[in-house]
Structures are given as C-alpha cells and as structure tokens.
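Morning!

As promised:
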Amino acid sequence: MHNDQKYIQFLLQNNGEGIQHIYRQFADKVVALICRNSGTNDDGFDILQESLVDIYHMAKYKDFQLTTSFESFLLLVCKRKWLNELKKRKRKEVTNVENHVFDIEDDSHTAYMEHMVLVEKENILMELLDSLGERCQEIIKRCMVSKNQEKIATSLGLTYAYLRKKKSECMAKLGEKVRAHPFFKSNN
Amino acid sequence: MKSREELIQDYIDNVLSAEDKRGFDILYENDAEFRAELRMQEELTEVLGRRLSSEEETLRASLVEAETTHRKGKRISWKQWLIPLAAAACILIVVKFVFFQSDTALYELPEMQSEVVRGNQNNEANDYERAVEAFNAKDYRKSTSILLDLYQTDQTILQYQFYLGLSLIGEKKFDQATRYLSPLADGESVFRQEANYYVAVILTESGRREEAKKRLSDIEQSAKIYDKAQKLLDKIKMEP
C-alpha cells in the first residue's frame, strides 16, 4: 500500500484534523496551478474541494489504491477538473498549462483514468437530477435512500400507487436527460 | 395496464405483481429498447442510491472548515482583522477565556525532547526532529502537521500520539487534543501521568472542574508532574 493512502483514509473517515492537514500540504499547490491557468484563488479552492469530493467517491465505490504520491494524483484530478470547467466556460484557449503531472505520471494517469471518468459520469447524473422539477427530485431522493416507500408516500401526502407512478415518470424523465447529454452520447 | 416505465421501476424495486411480471417478461423478450432502458434504469438506481446515501455533505462541511482555516491563516488585510479581533476580544471578556493568561506556568506545554524514537527509518527520525524544532518554537500548526503524519505512519509509537495531543493544545484545538490524550491518560504507558494532567487542563478550560479534579487527584505522587498537578488542583478548588 502506498504511504500516501492515509490521505484517502482521511477523506473516507471524514477526519477533521487529517483534512486540515491535506489543506496545509496541498492547497497552495493546487491554487497556484489553477491561477497559472486562467483561474483565480477562489477557482483554485473550489476545484480543490470538488476534486477531494471526487476522490472520496472514487475511494468509496471501489477499493481504490494510490499508485503514485497523493500530490501527483490530486494535481491530476484538479487539472482535469479545471480543464472541464474551462471548457464549460467556453474559454478553450488555455495558456501555460502545466503538463508535468501527465508527463511524469503517464502510466498512472492511464490507471486512474477509469476512476476519473466514472466519477465524472456520476457527477453529471447528479447535476441532471438537480435539473428535474422539485417534486421529482424529492421523490427520487427519498425513494433512493429508503426502501419503505409506503412511509414515504404518507409523509409526502400521496397514495402509495401514485408515488410509484410518479417515481417511474420521474426516473424515465431522468433517463431521457441522461440519453440526451453530450457526455453519455459520446461515451456510448 | 401499467406503463413500460412503471413495469421497469416495479421490477427494480422488486414489487412486480404476478400479472405484471407476465407483461414485463413479454416486453423483455421481444423488445431490445425495453431491455436497454431497463439496463440504464438499473444503473441509474445503483449510482443514485450510492451517491445519495453517501456522507458527502458531512465531508463537504469539513472541507469548507479546512478551507476557511487555511485561508484565514494566509493573507488577511488589516480590515479583515478587525471583526475577528473584536470578536476575539469579546469572547475573552465574556466567556472568561483565561487559558494561558493567569497561572501561565500551570498551562505551559513541556519542551519536546529531541531524541531518536523507536521506528528506525531515517526519514521518520528526521521528521520527528523537525516536529521537535517546530513544537519548541511554538509553531504548533507545523508540529501538528508533522506529528499527525508520523502518528498515521505508526500508531504504536505513543510518543507521537502524546506530542500530537500537546501540539493540538498549543493550537487550542482542545476537542481534538482530548481525542489523542485521553487514551494515554487512561492507559498504562509512561505518558499516563502527564497525559492525565493535560486532559485535566483541557477539562478545566471547558468548565468541567469536577472531572478535572478527579484527573488531577489520580496523578501519583511519584510523578514528575505531581507538584504542578497539585497547584492546579488547589487553583480549581479556590475558584468560586
């Protein structure tokens, strides 16, 4: 096991002191990377936070093992995230991009790629869920975390049959949005 | 007759009736689109279930806290200092935050001894020496960071745990300090007496005087920290 796996554990265990430690060790490097690539300090901290959440999900879902230093991996995730963000902002002309993370860790980049693409896919799904109507979001969110749908129906003031019908409509709507999203179109 | 979407959701949630199951099976066998939709809905359900049941929100709260602390420690203009300074002053007055103010010596942290500890890797020894340097220079933020690393590397070395607890006291992170010191105070190691003392200091600071008194009374007469413990005990007893 890589020595830096402890940083992953800090995230998985939501270890407050460990997370402070991650910020002390790496935040300035991430912020500097983003600032050198058309971003601001705030962008840097946002990207760092989102990247750490992504790493948490990667580690939680599968038995994720670091094959490089945590710093290299974190910078890799941050860089990819920032490039995606820049694309979103339609500022495709990125200057002075540091490529050393990719260059040095080329093999590990490939190894990490599957995890990163998967988490991006899931992030998009969560964004699409948030783009549904409030009622649909509420029904889906509640039905996904509790299996007792009769209780959910009662608490929402619906009949069980109507909740089932609404849930299937909402999930179908979400499915349509997923199919129409460019990411899923290009990855199918 | 249920819609295709309802049949899919009933199947996924395992509530398909016998009659609907027949309709579902016919569609499944004869309709490729239906099968594709089912596969996608199963995948969506799996991802949503996992994501929505995760502790992401709790993690985010910790990340925001860490970011705030980190950014506060960086560039803060004099204007930004005013509000926290005023707030700190109010807290000092109103909450009777007297730690390190009166009887300073009782709350003073000991000097961290420079020595090679068990754990024979050179890097580890170097890191320990860096922690000693930072701790004794009262750069507790730095010493905490190094000691936390060392502690995570080898949790069997209680010396790391002890000084990590003290370093956190130096940072005034009392809850976290307690987490590391309490097991030592309740244990049987050589750090027991001193850990007990510093847990008592934290308890005093938190207004839990009876618990602090109990801790201090437990410190053995032969312990190096005994005299200090007695003085703190007397001080607590004299307070109204």
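Confidence is low (pLDDT under 50) at residues 92-106 of chain A.

Hope this helps with the figure draft.
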